[in-house]
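User: Second chain of the day. Same drill as before.
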Amino acid sequence: MGELLPRVKQLALLAKKYDIGLNIDAEEADRLELSLDLLEDLSLDEDLSSWNGLGFVAQAYGKRCPFVLDYVIDLARRAGRRMMVRLVKGAYWDAEIKRAQLDGLEGFPVYTRKVHTDAAYIACAHKLLYAEDAVFPQFATHNAQTLATIYQLAGPDFRVGKYEFQCLHGMGEPLYEEVVGKGHLDRPCRIYAPVGTHETLLAYLVRRLLENGANSSFVIRISDPAVSVDDLVTDPVDVVEAMPIGGHAARPDFPTGRTLRQGIVPIRAALTFPTKRCLRTCRRSSPTPLRSDGMPYPSWPTDRVPARRGRSPTRRIKPTLLVS
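Assistant: Same format as last time:
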């Protein structure tokens, strides 16, 4: 925080000067708390008061997302500002699953079933629409069923600034041609366009290809003649409610990290931003994991672990929640 906060604040001051928005994108589960710490410090900073351009990006496939939104809404009210909240479904699903397995976790920080993410997105959208005083909801989606649901949830009483839709440049044009302008739904859509060098944009392009090239992607399914219109517009909540009891758990073909590592090396609980006290406790109570050659791994020097302030309520949220 000592190095990162001043640099982000400098960017925020520039954004305030030119009256443009700046969103903090919490793209990775293990950096969510750090992102929320940054958001809180910036929100309560007097130098950034009277500026409503500060925002946050929340990912609905994360199991903590509803609680993150509660926290952001409360923070916006405490800070006396209306904060932009961009709601996305999430683009790092593969990496989050694999990282949880590599870390030996008992579960996953994201839903393992696409339909659960779709249902969670609607639940989160509902939460944002009912906090109009504190947040400016920005719904980023290329899914026609999701868009239509939000349109109905928001109701006919619309004015510019109540909420908006968002899409990526080069995607979703046929969908949003039916949304923007008189004679259509008459709702605004902001087009997201990445800017940067080839090196910085290559990773972004790969993520988009993975996300929108998946068989479960609406962009792929809508162009598949084998997928009926009824299947495309099925309410994800109805699908979840119709599932057997086992359908609400994580997919059985996705072994957890603890399952994968069982019997290979002694497993310690994975730590996120560990404190010195936590590391000392684990060192005393856990067996020393051994390498394949029988030698112990190098110890983690606790004197290099940064101190944590412990403010964000998400630190008290259990990583497993409701479904998968």
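The first helix runs from residue 4 to 17.

User: Great, on to the next one.
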